[in-house]
Amino acid sequence: MRLLIFGPQGVGKGTQAQLLAPHFGVPHISTGDLFRENIAAGTHLGKQAQAALTAGELVSDGITQAMLADRLREDDARNGFILDGFPRTPEQADWLDAMLIGGAPVDAAIVLTAPYEVLVERALVRGRSDDTTEAIERRLAIYRERTQPLLSFYGSVVETVDADQPVQLVHQDILARVSERTGVL
């Protein structure tokens, strides 16, 4: 099973990916986790990512893609994966498509949605130091501008799920949509 999970900050992508991964027996791969792991391990890529983050910049596509390529080559990802946080742009989607040539394509792109006010409230409740109202609004605007075009890119495999409901109901909705699309329960 190869799933992508999209949605703005605060919509519950990580929560759903963590629930789906054991269900399908594939790893949940988060680019944020990859950054933290590489930085903690002091890898060459981790040092480059840390330098970008320390400078207040986004980690470049080249660094992100190199980390992800290494992770997708690991044995546990051989039968699939759930990507959380990647791709974020059409260019990254092109790269992922090229990376998967010769293997199975993406089975589904799950798009989690919730009202703007709910997203802001959820992000503020997390209590992270960088989760100010202004920062959250900026990230939501960036999501709309950069990531939403991916819905067109993945058009035929997109499944939209309302994430403004209890976690278990969101999970059940995702499983039902993926089952309808792939025949896998």
From TrEMBL:
Keyword terms of this UniProt record: ATP-binding, Cytoplasm, Kinase, Nucleotide biosynthesis, Nucleotide-binding, Transferase
Binding locations of AMP: 31, 36, 57-59, 85-88, 92, 128, 139
GO MF term (any one): ATP binding
Cellular component terms (Gene Ontology): cytoplasm
Catalytic activity: AMP + ATP = 2 ADP
Sites where the protein binds ATP: 10-15, 126, 165
E.C. no: 2.7.4.3
Localization of this protein: Cytoplasm
Cross-referenced NCBIfam families: PRK00279.1-3 (NF001381)
Name listed for the protein in its UniProt record: Adenylate kinase
Organism for this UniProt entry: Nakamurella alba
